[in-house]
From TrEMBL:
Substrate binds at S7, N8, N9, Q10, G11, K12, A69, F154, G155, F156, D157, K177, H182, R183. It comes from the Bacteria. Pyrophosphatase that catalyzes the hydrolysis of nucleoside triphosphates to their monophosphate derivatives, with a high preference for the non-canonical purine nucleotides XTP (xanthosine triphosphate), dITP (deoxyinosine triphosphate) and ITP. Seems to function as a house-cleaning enzyme that removes non-canonical purine nucleotides from the nucleotide pool, thus preventing their incorporation into DNA/RNA and avoiding chromosomal lesions. The gene is rdgB. This is dITP/XTP pyrophosphatase.
Amino acid sequence: MKIVLASNNQGKLVELQALFAPLGFDIIAQGQLFQGEAEEPFDTFVENALAKARFAAHHTGLPAIADDAGLCVDAFGGLPGVQTAYYCTQFGYPKSNDNNVQALLEQMQHIDQRGAYMVSTLVGVRSAADPEPLIAVGKVRVEIARQRQGNNGFGFDPVLIVPELGCTFAELSEATKNQYSHRGRSSRQMVELVAQYWAAA
């Protein structure tokens, strides 16, 4: 079965392809099939992920899975949340992963409460009008490092310390990261849901 990933993020694509490979599903980035991206006007991860999944299914006629993920920092009352990808722009930086990390380090420079969690909400639809989307949520507790550590991964990985491992996601191998990460957790849930509800269809 072919499933469209409602994202053009190469990091997400590689992670999800690896996680879905055992089921024999072919995950294809939407950018390989059509141009354009869905609006994400909502305040929750699940609503934005659903909008993206329906958009991709509508444009391709294929089942679609969308991920909306973000960083929720305790000291910021759970922000940036759904605005994580644009976090740095409020501080005058152009949008980029590197600038997001830089802005976060600057904003937390004098903050000792460094707890946070990453959220990944995956939503799957069989069609644009699917009345019963599959929803999987993965969360992982992290501590914000005071400087970048490691060269692997993407996004905020260089400053997200996994407390039980004592190192950042950027210091982990891909396989170990997938075991602990928010997206790894939500993806394993989604794999089980797809196997249970879609594979026999």
